[in-house]
Amino acid sequence: MDEYSHFVDWDKMDVSVQSQDTKELTCTDFNELKQLARQGYWAKNHSLRAKVYHKLISNIPCRTVTPDANVYRDIVVKIIGKRSSSSLPLPEFVDNSLIPTYCLNAEGVGAVRKIILCIANQFPDISFCPALPSVIALLLHYSKDEAECFEQVCRILACNDPSKRLIDQTFLAFESSCMTFGDLVNKYCQAAHKLMVAVSEDVLEVYSDWQRWLFGELPMAYIARVFDVFLVEGYKVLYRVALALLKFFHKVRAGQPMESDSIQQDIRAFVRDIAKSVSPERLLEKAFAIRLFSRKEIQLLQMANEKALQQKGITVKQKSCLLMFQQNVHLAVHAENFKSEIVSVKEMRDIWSWIPERFALCQPLLLFTTLEHGCSLSRFYSHSEGHEPTLLLIKTTAKEVCGAYLSTDWSERRRGGNKLSFFGTGECFVFRV
Fold first, then answer.
1. Does residue 264 carry a pLDDT above 80?
2. What number of other Cβ atoms are within 10 A of residue 343's Cβ?
3. According to the model, what pLDDT value does residue 342 have?
4. Were both Cys, which of 3, 17, 127, 242 would link to 210 (CB 3.0–4.6 Å)?
5. Which CATH architecture has domain 171-301?
6. Which DSSP string corresponds to 87-120?
C-alpha cells in the first residue's frame, strides 16, 4: 500500500481505486485540468489522487496566517490530551451533522473528531459548517497523517479569493445557498420541483437538505468524484450535482406514492443507495449537461438571497429561527389570512413556490383589484408603480386563470421612452393555473 493508506480500511474500499499504475499529472492549463477532473483521470489511482489534491489545495489563495500542520501538532495534545476524542462534544457549528466514515479504519474515524475540535480552536469565526465532517473524512483518505489533513482543510476554510467560494461557514451563507438551490431547482428541474410542491408542505425545508445529500449521504466513490471537480471548478459544481440527484430521484420515483412527512427521508435514502441506479460517471454526465447560470449570475443570486435574509433578521441559527423562516415563507397563503376571487389557497401556494426564494420570505400586499379599482389601465399603473416585484393574476371570462411575475417596477416600461419593447429581468415569467 502507498504512503496515503494509514487511515483507510481497504477491505471496505472499491478494489478499482487501488490501481498502482504510474500515471502522473503534469498539466497546468485550467481547461485541460477541468476536463481531466470531469473524466476521472486520477480517480482510479489512490496515490495520484492524493498528490493532485495536495497540489490543488496548495494553490488555493489563503489568509496570510493560515494554520498549518505544525500548528496542529502543537495544539492537538492540549485540546485532546489523553482523552478519547469520541468522549468529547463536537462544536455547535457542525449542527449534529452526519460524520461519514467513508471506509476509514477506527483510527481514521477518531481522527475526524480530533481535527474538527482543532479547527474549532483555530477558526472561532466559523458559526455553521455542516459539510466540514464529510470534507475531513474524505481528505483523510489522501493525507499522510492527521496534521497534513488539518492543514489541507484549513486552506479550504481560509480561502480569501472572493471569486472562489468553497465551503459555507455561517448560517447566513448556508441558508442563502439553500434558497439559491431552490431558485435553481425551480428553473432547471421544473418537473422535480412540481413533484416537491405537490407532496411537500414546505419545499424550502426539502431543499435545505441539499448539502446533506452531497456531504453525508452520497457514497464515498461518488463524493470523491464530485470533490475531484469541486477543487478545480468550485462551488457551482455542488449545485450541478445536487440538481442532477434531484432529477434522477424524480425519474426513479415519479408515479410512485409519496407522503409529505417522508419526502426528505426518501431523497436521503435514494442518494445513499444511488449505486443501485446511477454510476458516478452518469451522475457527473447529467450534472454537466445542465445549462446552468454563469458563476457570476449565481453569485449575484446568492448575494440577493443573503440580503433578503439579513433584512428579515435571519443571520444566525436559533431554535426558533427555522420556525420563523417557514412562517414568513407561507404567511400570506394560510387560509385564515388569504382571500382571492381568482385563485384558491392551494393554487396560491403553488404559485408562491415558483417565485424566487428571497421574495417568498415577504408578505404580499394587494395593490390593485378590478373589483375595487375598476378596469382602468392607467389606474392599474398608478397603483402598481413604485413596487417590485409584483404578481399579476388574471381570470378570463371562460374562468381560466393566468398570470405573470414581474421582477422590476412597472415604471421601467418608460425608461427607454417609446423605443423600449421589453423590460424586467430573466426572473420574469408568465404562467397558467
1. yes
2. 18
3. 84
4. 242
5. Orthogonal Bundle (1.10)
6. GSPPPGGGTT-----TTB-HHHHHHHHHHHHHHH
